[in-house]
Amino acid sequence: MSGPGVVVEVIVLSEQAGVLYYRDLRTPVSGGAHPDDVARQLAGLSPCTEGGLLHSTSWRAAEGTVVLTYAALPDLRPRDTRPVRLDAASAGAHPLTPSPLTVDLDAVAAHACRHLALLALTDGTVEAAARQLPRLWEPIGKLSPGPAGALGAVAA
Predict the structure, then answer these.
(1) What is the mean pLDDT of residues 103-112?
(2) For residue 5, what are the β-bridge partners?
(3) How far apart are CA 114 and CA 76, in angstroms?
(4) Is the pTM of this model over 0.70?
């Protein structure tokens, strides 16, 4: 049985002067590896990373592959980052075609942050990780929480 390839995309988050920043890392999944393991290695996180969190936030089909997106924090090597555009959004053209024709990476990062904001309120594991890195989680906590899968902006 064959199917599309799988690519892991990791949105690695950091904070500077109260502003969220991100960088995007990606690699194909190969050799039967689990996508969670691939994402964790790509982000450089380990069980010893204080406040470390890895969470799958969305997926999309792109150019014959399935892209599994994870949010990861903290960014242990924050270089070549860009600010998270919190107003960025992508949406499908019709309720029965939820996948946008193109997905802007800024929208993926903003969605991941909104999803983390929701989890910080509803998931004890995420809440505990957030307490360990209050400076990084403060700007996330100010966002309108969003559910997984909704790349569009969520009303406050």
Answers:
(1) 93
(2) 65
(3) 21
(4) yes
